[in-house]
Amino acid sequence: MKNFDIALIPGDGIGPEVVTEGVKVLKAIEKMDTKLSFSFTEFPWGCEHYLKTGKMMDDDGINKLRHFDAIYLGAVGYPGVPDHISLWELLLRIRKEFDQYVNLRPVTLLNQSLTPLKSKTEEDIDFLVIRENSEGEYAGAGDRLFKGQPEEVVLQTGVFSRKGTERIIRYAYEEARKSNRTLTSISKGNALNYSMVFWDEVIEEVGKEYPDVETYSYLVDAASLYLVSDPERFEVVVTSNLFGDIITDLGAGITGGLGLATGANVNPEKQYPSMFEPVHGSAPDIAGKGIANPIAAIWSVSQMLDFFGEERWGKAVLTTIQDMVKETEMLTPDLGGNAATGDVGDSFIEKLKITADTIKVK
């Protein structure tokens, strides 16, 4: 039997609600597959913890997480705690300390009715964004001089190392080659004359090693236009930390909203645990109402299973999600339904059992 030890950080707002449904799915898989088991340890870190202790996580939090196979995060952020504190002292700290330098965000239209784009279908919107996740614009380098004075100066420095840039680009090329898809780089070399010119140079250098991969390169503003007007041109996308953050929210907008947006923060070498999360945020305005959409959190379970090498179950979960969104009555209000969060999770598990039997995953 394979056992996977998972650290749970439900976090803030709707985080605990959606993580509960994701855990429910993993426990259901455990019952269906006698060769798999999952252990869970929950940590009460987040904004509420910060308001009580002045810290988003324990001082030795990184050491506590180090031995887990994966981290399952619900959401970070809540009114009363500045966003830069909630982000930098928990989510970004974990990403950096565990060198989770690959961020994987699928942009996949599951049902044509969910996109606001006229005449676009499931075949037109289906790509993977590979975002550099360890440095770039989120390196945290900079300074603030003469604060509060007329001559105040603020410096925010993007950090693009050759190691960091080359490894994410190479990872993207490997993914494109393995899946027989095109690769598109998104940058802004005409304006960012150091960082993005360097990025473009590394794309060209590494690309010579992959002559079989058809490669394109767009400026981020042009790419944003094409994401709306011609999304079918994208298959595998590689981009920097900031641009990846922005365009994947745009991707969520064209595929049904943030309730369907998921992300994996991966250390490919598995020297450290990787982290899986829905990326919709804590949504404090609906927290506690039982109407939060758990599908993104469940989709991140699919990514986690793929990472564990259990692709058969990862596929089963994703296939069930695709079936689920076709039936509006068992969806939450953001997708046009009236179902409660827990009801969606329960219905999902029943459908997963059918999917597992159909594709003989057990």
Characterization of this structure:
Belongs to the isocitrate and isopropylmalate dehydrogenases family. 40% of the residues lie in helices and 22% in strands. The chain is α/β, with parallel strands linked by helices. It folds into two domains: 197 residues, Isopropylmalate Dehydrogenase, CATH 3.40.718.10; 153 residues, 3-Layer(aba) Sandwich (Isopropylmalate Dehydrogenase), CATH 3.40.718. The strands form two sheets. Strands 2-1-3-12-11-4-5-10-8-9 form a ten-stranded mixed β-sheet, with helices on both faces. It has a two-stranded antiparallel ribbon with strand order 6-7. The two termini are 13 Å apart. 44% of the residues are buried.
For the structure shown, list the relevant keywords.
about 350 residues, alpha/beta, Isopropylmalate Dehydrogenase, 2 domains, ten-stranded mixed β-sheet, two-stranded antiparallel sheet, 11 helices, 12 strands
Helix and strand layout, with pairings?
Blueprint: E1 2-11, H1 15-32, E2 36-42, H2 47-53, H3 61-65, E3 70-75, H4 83-97, E4 102-108, E5 126-132, E6 136-145, E7 153-159, H5 162-179, E8 183-187, H6 195-207, E9 215-219, H7 220-229, E10 236-239, H8 241-253, E11 262-266, E12 274-278, H9 295-307, H10 311-324, H11 341-358
Parallel strand pairs: 1-2, 1-3, 3-12, 5-10, 8-9, 8-10
Antiparallel strand pairs: 4-5, 4-11, 6-7, 11-12
Helix pairs in contact: 1-9, 1-11, 5-6, 7-8, 9-10, 10-11
